[in-house]
Amino acid sequence: MAFADPAHELTPTQVKEALAKGDVLLIDVREPYEWDAGRIAGATHIELERLAARADEVPSDKPVVFHCRLGVRSAMAMQAFRASGWDAYHLGGGIQRWVEEGLPIEPDDGYVADH
Predict the structure, then answer these.
(1) E strand intervals along 18-83
(2) Considering only CA atoms, which of 22, 34, 26, 31 is closest in space to residue 10?
(3) What does the alpha-carbon distance between residue 11 and residue 27 come to, in Å, rounded to a whole number?
């Protein structure tokens, strides 16, 4: 699956549709307290600072989408993984934009934690 955006930035709708089809792996690079507060169903949690050490856990045979709260950390992760050969993208605007667009997070009373 290839996305056309030259910045490799995806919208919440694009990520939701790709997740529903099983076309991508979504990795949440936020801190544990942020993950605990609220998360996108189906995401895998690997903190940004641990990502390089755990890169072998990220499959390279399907696109990977990184996300964080606003999109800054996930953009860094995406760039590093793209440079290493992954088909990597990131959720533009992060989970904050996901929630603003009315998409669900877990748990039911979940919220987007601030820094």
Answers:
(1) 25-28, 44-45, 64-67
(2) 26
(3) 15
For the stretch 13-40, pLDDT in tens is 999 999 999 999 999 999 999 999 999 9
Segment (H or E) for 73: helix 72-83
- 41 closest CA partner among 115, 86, 95: 95
Model-wide pTM > 0.70: yes
**CA dihedral of residues 86, 83, 32, 28 (deg, nearest 10):** -40
Inter-residue long-range contacts of 15-24, CB under 8 Å, 24+ positions, other chains counted: 15/40, 15/65, 15/67, 15/91, 15/98, 16/103, 18/63, 18/65, 23/62, 23/63, 24/62, 24/63, 24/64, 24/65, 24/89
Q: For residue range 58-112, what is the model confidence (pLDDT) as tens digits?
A: 999 999 999 999 999 999 999 999 999 999 999 999 999 999 999 999 999 999 9
Q: Cα separation of 6 and 114, whole Å? A: 29
